[in-house]
Amino acid sequence: MTIPFDLITTDPNSSARRGRLHTAHGVVETPVFMPVGTQGTVKGMLPESLHDLGAQIILGNTYHLFLRPGHDLVKKMGGLHRFMNWSGPILTDSGGFQVFSLGKLRKIDEEGVRFQSHLDGAHQILTPESSIEIQQALGSDIIMVFDECIPYPATRDYVIDSTERSMRWAKRCKQAHNRQDGSALFGIVQGGMHEDLRRKSAHDLMEIGFDGYAIGGLSVGEEAEVMYEVMDYTLPELPADRPRYVMGVGTPENLIEGVRRGVDMFDCVMPTRNARNGVLFTSFGKISIKQAQYREDERPIDPDCDCYVCRHYSRAYLRHLYQSNEILSSMLNTMHNLHYYVQLMAQVRQALDEGNFATFYKEFYQRRQSGVVLES
């Protein structure tokens, strides 16, 4: 295995686990939330600010960086770490989700995916081999295999065909991956919402052999309970000594439920996207800062939060910034939301270290159900 993963402790009352992932650009304590920096930047955040709020690892995206500015340019500039001034680990998504979301602008065949760029309409192709080549040129610490993110709902026949093709692509990705740069390669379990197909996909990936395993094709419109069911029957199939990553998930509740089921790594655009729309996460639930009730509210977003925003700004000021369409609104809102997500995982790790995850889990829901801050 290219990147060692240490399993430190497991919760006796659930499948929650505490781990440590070693990469060329630093150690990642798990469970971990990874902010999404699609185009070589986490929107509205300086790299120094990400470090300050405790972010350990961030994401880049193959599709977007391939189209602009181009992976060859990024490589020429010293790789993505140097290009964006981020010294910590980087995981890159293969671009599969973005390509498949293009709909009629793309065509899938055994070779890969032919598509028209959303930027200028130019015809492009991504294959398992080119996806790996791009990610290695970017200098990613963790590379994801190229696969199809299956839509929901989808017929069983479609899911079978897609999952089998993704498995063939996974083999090609492993063959194309050059380990000399120290990067790790993660496989991605597909299979839609079908238990037998998910189990088969997990076992087939393990036969190929990867440094870590992700569950893809979730948070695509299914109900939360369906998502949890997929986690319930898929995660136990994956090797305990490798990191487990659920892609594109999700709400704070999704993260806590994922941790309880044995997930080590998460990413999602939810904290950053919601921030730009004036929706802020707190230990007591979400608030929409645009609402008139906050016009004269002198309190911080969350009195229990020690982030820079909560220490210096009132809800009234943040509402004013949002209503005025000021750039600072997105910056401050994003800083708070990412701090909340990152620190939520830090609290989970502490609870696991201290052996009281069950208590943490119970109190997490009790506080959100009380809505004390929202009603005080």
UniProtKB/TrEMBL annotation:
Zn(2+) binds at residues 305, 307, 310, 336. Substrate binds at residues 93-97, 147, 190, 217. One of its GO terms (biological process) is tRNA queuosine(34) biosynthetic process. Binds 1 zinc ion per subunit. Residues 15-369 form the tRNA-guanine(15) transglycosylase-like domain. The active site is at residues 93, 267. Catalyzes the base-exchange of a guanine (G) residue with the queuine precursor 7-aminomethyl-7-deazaguanine (PreQ1) at position 34 (anticodon wobble position) in tRNAs with GU(N) anticodons (tRNA-Asp, -Asn, -His and -Tyr). Catalysis occurs through a double-displacement mechanism. The nucleophile active site attacks the C1' of nucleotide 34 to detach the guanine base from the RNA, forming a covalent enzyme-RNA intermediate. The proton acceptor active site deprotonates the incoming PreQ1, allowing a nucleophilic attack on the C1' of the ribose to form the product. This is Queuine tRNA-ribosyltransferase.
